[in-house]
């Protein structure tokens, strides 16, 4: 019987996952201001985005120790991402006479740019009618404190983007950043529960990876904006270590049809799934 050979890199990734889980649960400060958190998460993202063989990917995803910690790792990674957004929102908002080039200081700026480029290209290719809608606005649910996706989407589509988030502190920080960068004519913020608001004004609706209870949000979209294009950010392959993968079958069971998707790569962590009712 042929023995399966696992690379040292895959074994190292398992060790890194367990180390990150331990550090995230031990440290009180999960912001980039904590050098240990900064170093640990930078290393984790770097290792996750390294190319692996299919054998290595299966080994890591099915490894019992990885499976055991993954749920609580998602929780802590979500907290750390929130802290990172707050940290950079404050940093970028404090710059005197800020300009577009200052946004590049964000650690994952290039990742955001590449992701939004893929998303807009897919919309233009597969759903160009959505961008031709004369009054259609774009909604971004779960925009957070640092609405870079909304800023990039507005710039590339020439559409007004509405940021929706339940957290009042995140909304306040996002509004400050948008105002300071003189983007208020193109982007606005609504503090609301995505499961309760009306999506009637929006022709395209994005759901961030960290939005909880996505099915409930989608049911609300179907009720209030049944013709909208719904873009749900997900993760594939080993990127599932960082973000939970969207269950396509569960969304199709709600009456959605998957019409297009973007693919992740070594530069782009998320994939994006496009659905119509």
Précis, in short:
48% of the residues lie in helices and 14% in strands.
- Return Rg in Å: 19 Å
Task: Give the CATH superfamily of the largest domain.
Answer: Vaccinia Virus protein VP39
Write down the overall geometry.
globular
Instruction: Look up the CATH topology of the largest domain.
Output: Rossmann fold
Strand order of the largest sheet: 3-2-1-4-5-7-6
Tell me, what is the CATH class of the largest domain? Alpha Beta
Nearest-integer average pLDDT: 94
Helix content: 40-55%
Q: How many strands, what sense, and barrel or not for the largest sheet? A: 7 strands, mixed
User: How many strand elements?
Assistant: 7
Strand content: 5-15%
Total of helices: 10
Output the helix-strand order: HHHHHHEHEHEEHEHEE
Structural class: alpha/beta
Domain module count: 2
Ends distance: 49 Å
- Which residues form runs of ≥5 with pLDDT under 50? none
The second-level CATH architecture of the largest domain is: 3-Layer(aba) Sandwich
């Amino acid at each position: 019987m042929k023995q399966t050979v696992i690379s040292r890199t895959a074994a190292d990734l398992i060790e890194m996952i367990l180390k990150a889980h331990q550090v995230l649960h031990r440290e009180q400060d999960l912001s980039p201001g904590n050098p240990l958190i900064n170093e640990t998460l930078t290393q984790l993202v770097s290792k996750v985005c390294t190319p692996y063989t299919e054998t290595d990917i299966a080994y890591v995803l099915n490894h019992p120790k990885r499976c055991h910690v993954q749920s609580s790792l998602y929780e802590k990674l979500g907290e750390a991402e929130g802290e990172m957004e707050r940290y950079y929102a404050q940093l970028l908002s404090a710059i005197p006479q800020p300009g577009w080039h200052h946004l590049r200081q964000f650690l994952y700026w290039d990742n955001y740019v590449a992701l939004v480029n893929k998303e807009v290209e897919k919309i233009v290719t597969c759903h160009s009618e959505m961008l031709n809608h004369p009054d259609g606005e774009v909604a971004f649910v779960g925009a957070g404190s640092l609405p870079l996706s909304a800023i990039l989407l507005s710039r590339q589509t020439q559409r007004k983007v509405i940021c929706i988030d339940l957290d009042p502190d995140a909304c306040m920080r996002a509004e400050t950043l948008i105002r300071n960068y003189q983007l208020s004519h193109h982007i606005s913020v609504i503090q609301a529960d995505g499961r309760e608001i009306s999506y009637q004004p929006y022709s395209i609706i994005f759901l961030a990876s960290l939005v909880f209870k996505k099915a409930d949000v989608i049911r609300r979209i179907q009720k209030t904006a049944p013709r909208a294009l719904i873009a749900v950010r997900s993760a594939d392959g080993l990127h599932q270590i960082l973000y939970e993968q969207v269950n396509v079958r569960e969304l199709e069971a709600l009456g959605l049809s998957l019409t297009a998707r973007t693919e992740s790569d070594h530069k782009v962590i998320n994939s994006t799934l496009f659905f119509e009712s």
